[in-house]
TrEMBL record:
It comes from Gasterosteus aculeatus aculeatus. Residues 1-16 form the signal peptide. Residues 38-57 are annotated as: Disordered. This is Renalase, FAD-dependent amine oxidase. Pfam families: Amino_oxidase (PF01593), NAD_binding_8 (PF13450). The lineage of its organism: Eukaryota, Metazoa, Chordata, Craniata, Vertebrata.
Length: 342
């Protein structure tokens, strides 16, 4: 039995774990490590500290399947729809550009439910607050070092964090990269933005008609979602929540500032855009340093093999594009490489 470590409990990592289990069944023991306190990565769903009835998606908002991906990824959409994880997004999203054949889906339980679905299907052992700091080649195994100290040995490792975070790893990763691979990873560019979630008392009803809106007349705010309404969570008695995403230029300008210092600027602008907004009971701000891929690895290969034996692979949206289908493509391509190497 091979011991496989997947670093990152985001969509790519959870899909890699699930597909690997389905292909190799009990021939692999799979562990998923993530430095965060919860799974989801950029598909995270947050809750205020004192309410279990509120939740909001701070990162990805909805899933779009284009007509070609609707065919090639049909099994993933069918699985998520029949499990109730996805539902058609049928509420009003102002400013959403619609192309022929596009289908939009929302997640009644929040975006992290997509990741949790694949993680539970994988039967992998999930370890949170496990920050990988370095990888060292030890014969036919990889020694994986943790931030809190200590290390563990694995037969194969798949790294699914954004390319700039792969380049920060210590140990032998740098040596495994060819000059061109290193350059390709260095050339990956991400946008940056802030996200703010506001949670309101249960009796609050928003006065505007939309469930989400792309904002075109603000240099600070790019997108606002009545998150609970978008997910039909209002009718299920869940507390109302609002999510705000800043523009990328604003995100870049304030990137090195504390989110506590940036939050009031965003809220002031929000009140200008939505005057009369009720007082929230809780607010959460998130800085997405690595938000969405602007420039991916050339030709979108899906993954990069750093070493064939013992296998060390990189995957994630850096190798395709930043959305659901990009992560599916990446996981499929990492899986075929891993299967060949194991
Ligand atoms: C604001 C925003 C809006 C978006 N909107 C949409 C949308 O509407 N629709 C859509 O389809 N996509 C959207 N996206 C893009 C989508 O969220 C991403 O493409 C996708 O979630 C990437 O998944 P991933 O697994 O590749 O990476 P990630 O989700 O980033 O997962 C990587 C994981 O690795 C962990 N990690 C990093 N370093 C280490 C380490 N050293 N040790 C251990 N763990 C580590 C991280 O904590 C993280 O959980 C959006 C993203 C953002 C930020």
């Amino acid at each position: 039995m091979s011991r496989v470590l997947i670093v990152g409990a985001g969509l790519t990592g959870s899909l890699c774990a699930c597909l690997l289990r389905r292909e190799l069944q009990n021939k692999v023991q799979i562990e998923v490590w993530d430095k965060a306190r919860g799974s989801g990565g950029r598909m995270s769903t947050t809750r205020p500290p004192d309410s279990s009835s509120h939740s909001a998606d701070l990162g990805a908002q909805y899933i779009t399947s284009t007509s070609s991906y609707a065919q090639s990824h049909q099994r993933f959409y069918s699985e998520l729809l029949s499990a109730g994880v996805l539902q058609p997004l049928d509420s009003l999203v102002e400013g959403l550009k619609h192309r022929d054949g596009d289908e939009n889906y929302m997640t009644p339980q929040g975006m992290s439910s997509v990741v949790k679905h694949f993680l539970s299907q994988s039967g992998a052992d999930l370890f949170l607050e496990r920050h990988v700091t370095g990888l060292y080649r030890r014969g036919a195994s990889w020694e994986v070092q943790r931030k809190v100290g200590g290390s563990e040995m694995f037969d194969a490792v798949v790294l699914t964090m954004p390319a700039p975070q792969i380049l920060q790893l210590q140990g032998d990763v740098g040596q495994m990269l060819s000059v061109s691979q290193k350059q390709q990873l260095e050339d990956v560019e991400f946008s940056s933005r802030f996200a703010v979630a506001l949670f309101f008392p249960p009796d609050v009803v928003f006065s505007f008609p939309w469930s989400a809106r792309y904002v075109s007349d603000s240099s600070i705010i790019r997108y606002i979602a009545a998150d609970s309404r978008k997910r039909n969570a209002d009718v299920l008695g869940r507390g109302p929540s609002l999510v705000v995403h800043t523009s990328v230029p604003f995100g870049l300008k304030h990137l090195e500032e504390d989110k506590e210092a940036v939050q009031p600027i965003i809220l002031q602008e929000l009140h200008k855009l939505l005057p009369g907004l009720p007082e929230p009971i809780s607010i959460k701000c998130q800085k997405w340093r690595y938000s969405q891929v602007l420039t991916s690895v050339p030709d979108s290969p899906g993954h990069m093999t750093l070493l064939q034996r013992p296998p060390l692979l990189c995957a994630g949206d850096s190798f395709v594009h930043s959305n659901f289908s990009g992560c599916v493509e990446s996981a499929l391509s990492a899986l075929s490489a891993l299967k060949a190497s194991l």
